[in-house]
Amino acid sequence: MSDKNAQKTLETQLSSGQILPALPYVAHDIIVSTSSNDVDISHVAETLSREPGLSARVVAVANYAFFTRRETVYSLESAIMRIGMNRVRVLATSLILNKLFNTKNCPEFHLQRYWLDAISTAFAAARLAPHYCPGYSTDAAYLGGMLHSIGLPLLVHTFPSILNQALAEHNQKPETSLSHLIYQALGSDYSDAGGILLREWGLPEPIIAVAANSHSRGYAGPHAELVAVVHFTHEWLKNGYDASQIDTTLHPDQALLQRIAKSCAAEEESLAAFAELLAQSDD
Which residues contact 71 (CB under 8 A, 6 or more apart)? Predict the structure, then answer.
């Protein structure tokens, strides 16, 4: 089966099994409209206020200990300023995904591990972007990193038994490519699923390109630089900040990578704590 036919088959399976879940307006507005550099915090606060559960979560997270020992905040605007727009995007996305996708029927899928990979990739990609894809904003790199594996929870939700088997094999033999195992079972992988989903949601083309290609090599489309940065970042983190074995079109500068690795390592504890919160955000 060709890659194009496999993707068609997956799209048919997703559409016939259930309609692809729609991205609620609030999440879409936060994820897309806040990607500009001149974000109006009062507008974001107004948007968040339409979802009381999300508003409460943002304020609660702003008061968690890992955001430093500061006085308690109560307003949405103060909470947004404290935790930053990127974390607001992540919170909105996690709450929506946890509602849209039921991953509990797939015991081998670990939601906390998924979110830690997503936000760690986002954090590091945003720091690599100015040096390796200067044509894209750091926000685009962050959002691309956060959503680079978005197809995985979609497939876990849609094909829980198949994904559980693939994940079990991958967890037993981490050196085996999860993407390859899923492709063997479905004829497509979670990159295909991610591209299909984000296109359905109407996200910007660069972000769709990342989700559809960041786990494969050889993409030479219009957003190749951004895709390459996210792909490299994911592999770099997975290899413990060792770039020597990564097949990439980038030409990494070791001194630069060491500085960024130090910055990433300093954030590991807070990112892990945040990932734990994200995994519990449907409770």
Answer: none
CA dist 59 and 79 (Å) reads: 5
Tokens for 249, please give them. 């079109």
Q: How far apart are CA 283 and CA 163, in angstroms?
A: 23
pLDDT tens for 35-56 read 555 667 887 888 778 777 778 8
pLDDT tens column, 256-267: 999 999 999 999
pTM of the model: 0.86
Measuring CA to CA, how many Å separate 194 from each of 9, 10, 12, 130? 14, 11, 14, 25
Q: Compute the distance between CA of residue 216 and CA of residue 148 in angstroms, rounded to an integer.
A: 11
Please say whether the beta carbons of 117 and 190 come within 8 A. Answer: no
**150, 214 contact by CB (below 8 A):** no
- pLDDT tens profile 196-229: 989 888 888 999 999 999 777 678 889 999 999 9
3-class SS at 241? coil
Phi, psi of 147 (to 5 degrees): -105, 10
Q: What's the token pair of residue 243?
A: 């770039």
DSSP 219: -
Q: In the predicted model, is pLDDT for residue 58 greater than 50?
A: yes
For the chain, where are the alpha helices, taking DSSP H only?
3-17, 25-28, 41-48, 52-62, 76-83, 85-100, 111-132, 138-146, 151-158, 160-172, 178-186, 190-201, 205-213, 224-238, 254-266, 268-279
- Please enumerate in sequence order all residues whose Cβ is within 8 A of that of 118, keeping only pairs 6 or more positions apart, or say none: 90, 145, 146, 147, 148, 149
Dist CA 73 CA 63 (whole Å): 7
